[in-house]
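Entry 14. Ran structure prediction on the chain below.
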Amino acid sequence: MITAVTSWLQELAIIVQQQLELLRNEDVGPAQLQTLTAKREDCFRRLQESWAAVSEEELSAQMKEDLARIAGQVMTIDAEVRELARRQRDQVLESLRTSHLQREVQGVYAASVTEARGVFVDRRDG
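Output, structure tokens:
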């Protein structure tokens, strides 16, 4: 059973690393991230199931150290994934705010031009 735990933990590390690489690529689409997130959730579920089946007697001191090392690596990479995801989310939100403001400014400008045009026409007719 400990072999399954190690395998799932290593698989989880690979998936988290793939998520990190995708997030570093700023052109990543949500579908790609969703696919990896689904794989990650499945892998984590299987890891938990495997871990629940491991007895304390199966774990040697070396195995505990190895598992702790791999888990530490996964957590470090995961923290970076979360930070990159947060930054990208903030950038997208800022971009949306900026484009919304630009549309508002364009609307105000168009309205003022239309109004000025109307005033000019009114003066010519008057």
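The CA atoms of residues 114 and 120 lie 10 Å apart. Will compare against last week's run tomorrow.
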